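cron nightly-structures :: item 1 of 1
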Amino acid sequence: MTDTKPTRQPVPDSTEARYPSPQLWDRIEGARRRAGRVRDTVITQAHGGGGKAMRDLIDDVIRSAFDNPNLQIQEDQARFSLAEMALHGDRLAFTTDGYVVSPLFFPGGDIGKLAVNGTINDLAVSGARPLYLSCSLILEEGLPMDTLREILASMGQAARQAGVQIVTGDTKVVPRGAADKIFISTAGIGVIPASQQIAAHQLQPNDAILINGYLGDHGAAILIARGELQLETTIESDCAPLHGLIAALLDAKITPRAMRDLTRGGLAATLNEIAQASNLHIAIDATKIPIRPEVQGFCEILGFDPIHLANEGKLALAVPAEQAQTALAVMRAHPLGQHAAIIGSCRPEPKGIVTLQNGFGGERILAMLVGEQLPRIC
């Protein structure tokens, strides 16, 4: 990243209190010139001690990866113009999450990319426009500095590509053995347009249920990346930010009743949550669910069910039946929805359950897993 001074933004008369103000740019530039360089090759206890080693870590390794004016002000909190945020809607969406995935790097992503996109998706499924993220790092003593730089660079790239800013955070260092290399906690703020009222209790009988593509890619990619199985496959995580796909649906005047991203517990857990919150019956046709052949084969070998596997770039949404085909066309026109499908519908009875119909006419209750199918998946 080039060490150049950010372009000053014009400040309209009506928003003279905008933060950062033009008067703060000299402070920002001065702080950049004073930033030290980290010479250590691994994380040490000194990097969490509050002294110069910690300051150099924050300046040289962390802040430089997320470079933006809000972060460069170097206060203990990020500051925003309420007037500017209100231009996007009338309500805030706020979410928080933690990431402990093992291994840190896997086909299709890493813990940093996962943390950014996962938080963005939690905001986006409310209909919100994601704007700002925080990042809290728990670093284990001995973590290679190059590993940390690579993860933070991935986070910064994911944030920039999604059009969001990482604007505040915290760093702690724990002794060897007290953590597994690095844990990341993120929180996110977005703004919900006044017209959007997306929530599970909005579901109505006959609403259609759609998903935007293949299930189980992330869960399969993580397990294979752990090296515990002697399998050769090209399965990659589907880790991706979903707000662009959701924006396309909203721009097309689709009115989702509910949306959820399909993370831990997969499709089965998500649909059960929606069914219970709406007090409706969700009926799913198993033959309509898109599953990559490689993932299906992987699951057959290990006795897994793709419906329960985690995803990091998939969502389920419910729309009025008359909008289902239009929503499907919009999703398939987007890169993250090319394999979208209508997989079921809502019924009034029996309340609060999900059923799965197989290709032979049989139907069974699709329940959540009692335990965890795969630990440390995100």
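cron nightly-structures :: done
The first strand starts at residue 91 and ends at 99.
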